[in-house]
Amino acid sequence: MKKNIIIVKGNPKFRIPGLSEKFYKELDNTVKPYGKIKKIESDVTSTSIAKLIKNKNDVIIGFSRGCGYKPQLQNYFNIKNKYIGIGCSKNDVVDYQIKNPKDKTPEDMSRNSLKNHWTITKEMKKELVKILKNLNKGSI
User: Fold this and answer.
1) Percent of the chain with pLDDT over 70
2) Structural domain for 123, as ranges
3) Based on the structure, what is the number of domains in the chain?
């Protein structure tokens, strides 16, 4: 049974036309060998995310604002699925965190920092694939 990869998208208020779509396309292409992708906007309730989780092997990837749901899922729904955060703030509690080193958000919300926030580097992709492969093996 192929697992679900639930992607909780970032805040639409800060999307950059063209770049944001490219980011999600690259993210999709990186994770699709590891599961069926389900996307959800980040302005949802944790109940909506919980309904998408079908088994304990499903993986949740939160981008930016989407990083903040793990405590609610764990505390209110007893969901212990692995949560990978991309572009999270330092206060977000996730199992794995991946961030573009040039991304200085949320402290710096300048256009340049936001461009880096919406850029998934080769190194980030490699780290994400490494995490997903290890999760498939059950070694982390």
Assistant:
1) 97
2) 4-137
3) 1
